[in-house]
Amino acid sequence: MSNEMDVVAVRALVATFEKDFNVPIKAAIEGIDGDIEKLNEQIATLQAKSRDQTYNKVAALVTLAQALNISNPSAGYNAFLAERGIVAPDMTKAGANPYPKFIKAVFSVQVGSVWSFTDRSVEKHANHVRFLVNAMRAGTLTGSVQDFIRDFKHATHGNMLDGIEANDRFDNKTDAQEKRIETVRERGRNADPVVTFDSPLGYEDGSVVSLWGRVVGGNLEIMFVESANDDKDSLYYKLGKTIKAA
Length: 246
Hints:
Blueprint: H1 7-21, H2 36-68, H3 75-83, H4 99-106, E1 109-111, E2 114-116, H5 125-138, H6 145-151, E3 153-154, E4 158-159, H7 160-171, H8 175-189, E5 209-216, E6 219-227, H9 232-241
Antiparallel strand pairs: 1-2, 3-4, 5-6
């Protein structure tokens, strides 16, 4: 289906988002007068409001990306990108990713006659929006975007927005990134042990286990052992990341 939105309509949609979300949250802490408990309560309240505002912003970006149909860009959308000094992505190429330039355009600011993108902290929203749009298309996101973010949990990639970002990066690795990840995993598989215990743990050779312990009197006491074979690759990857390449 063609996308015939003109640049005026694109500007209007983006302007609405900018009006609602491009102004940072401002809040003054008043009337505290050195009361640490009240100060901590106020800080916690502001942090919760900030999280909610971030979730609302990401949800609005999802809505905006869908309204602009950036995966099938109109001439108007490409003209909007050009106005902000951004070359439109070539969506005819396999694996083309329109989301980084979408985020860059939406969060660019005008100084004089020049548009510039300086807030690198919002670049991760490109991962958030791509993942959430894909989840909607797959039918795995059926409620509100905000609730989906709050409830998002992943065993190895993390929770909420951090987990969504990591999950999106993992799902969309380039060949070069895949090779680097496998190199790190291999480094972990071939790592030398830090210490060897001769006490049997009840697992077969080659099993991967997680140990929880504490140091008492200079000795390490193992408090709990858990088999982690199903998560072997992830554990090897985490181990490999801590080991410097030879």
